[in-house]
């Protein structure tokens, strides 16, 4: 029963390593629950605090409430005993025994990770879109973190090419962060999956993001870092992937540009320099290679998805759209948002992801003429 899996992960101080030891001993979470409450002698050595929690029935009640939320919000569980739980992560001692996910297609493990700067350049965007398109056509899932910038472009390019994409989240899968990515999250659920170790209702916290990056680095076969500043979270992901023995590739760029300093340093420190898309293909003798067969429920590759040009625009989006009588730099739209450049960038990114506007050379914003908006 799902409720006992949820219960097992709610015990404070009981991490994946000990959870797996208990499962080795009792085989199922339900057996663990009844064993502790019957004072079975087949128990690993645990602290009194953990033993008290294991005997406290309120944790099972909390697990039941979470299970109810899962059913209401169409959230699924991936447990270590599930056939879709990737074989390549089963031997990673501190990988969770349980993940929450939302998807309308069969869950596909593994893939190529793509991460990078939130404030990416047009060069970084071009590389990311090309790679996402290539991987989709090779039937290789794209894995990223659903952040703005490189992550968002990676997911979007894969979806538009009819591919499967997975997003790892640092919060419950029933919410979206940042909120501007809501339409992208909906498309990922339609054409891939969003995954998290955090239960529904858990809000994002800064301390959760490194853990999210770690899970992503375990899940993938290879990692591509497109752009990263010297203190980028993408570098943390790269470091974790390297320690796990995964190949890390980095896109070279202008040595004087902030967005390139992190990736150029990765190359200096031994990462593979990324030059061609073929470097991301998996070797035929790789045990974790993904099947080239079309998965059940896969998308028609000739159908362009993720195009929301027919959706209703918000008041401010309509003002921006109407102002684009000719292509304009973002600075000329600032008056519409009282000079709030950060908010303007967020709105333009969302509109670009939905195919309402596009970015031309020279960072000019232009409306997309085909389709209709209301």
Percent helix among the residues?
25-40%
Beta fraction of the residues? Answer: 5-15%
Structural class: alpha/beta
What CATH calls the topology of the largest domain is: Rossmann fold
Which CATH class of the largest domain applies here? Alpha Beta
CATH architecture assignment of the largest domain: 3-Layer(aba) Sandwich
- Compute the number of structural domains: 3
Helical run tally: 14
Distance between the termini: 46 Å
Mean pLDDT across all amino acids: 85
**Net shape:** globular
User: Topology as H/E string?
Assistant: HHHHHEHEEHEHEHEHEHEHEHHEE
Low-confidence stretches: 284-307
| Strand order across the largest sheet | 1-2-6-5-4-3-7-8-9
What is the number of strand segments?
A: 11
Using only CA atoms, what is the Rg? 22 Å
The biggest beta sheet, please?
Answer: 9 strands, mixed
